[in-house]
Fold this sequence. Notes:
The chain has 2 domains: 2-68, Luciferase, Domain 3 (Luciferase, domain 3, Roll); 71-170, GMP Synthetase, Chain A, domain 3. It has 4 helices and 10 strands. The protein has helices spanning 36-42, 81-89, 125-135, 160-170; strands at residues 2-3, 18-23, 43-44, 47-56, 62-67, 72-74, 77-79, 94-104, 108-117, 144-147.
Amino acid sequence: xxxxxxxxxxxxxxxxxxxxxFVRGNIVMKGYLKNPSATEDAMSNGWFRTExxxxxxxxxxxxxxxxxxxxxxxxxxxxxxxxxxxVLYRHPEIDEVAVIAMPDEKWGEVPCAFVKTTEASAxxxxxxxxxxxxxxxxxxxxxxVIFKTLPxxxxxxxxxxxxxxxxxxxxx
Length: 172
């Protein structure tokens, strides 16, 4: 089920209303062993909260849009980090990218992109931001671009928590 994470009401099956994915069944856990507070956080009315955000289509197809913790709330607008990453991956001089929320005094949070470019690239921060602004609403474009190799797990997944920690510690 895709539902509003606050009201627990299923979202419209219109392919555009965003909600959280909830699952239940005989293969879903009942809770965390000897940890009732974590179980309470993870479960709602017998449903497991995946923390994945998605839209629900009329044919019951669920389209995942982002992780709940990766949504950037800037000036009251929800910005999907995945949407920005998809745009940046279209640039021929960008090999890898990760987008996170960066604290901002005026907007609360703003997008910050970590980019690994191709070896021959001479991209600048202004080039990357301008490229994004051509492809999406201006408020969604990253306000800061940091060029570096992205930290990864042994399986190759980008460690966004490391990037978040770097941004909060250094106040980029």
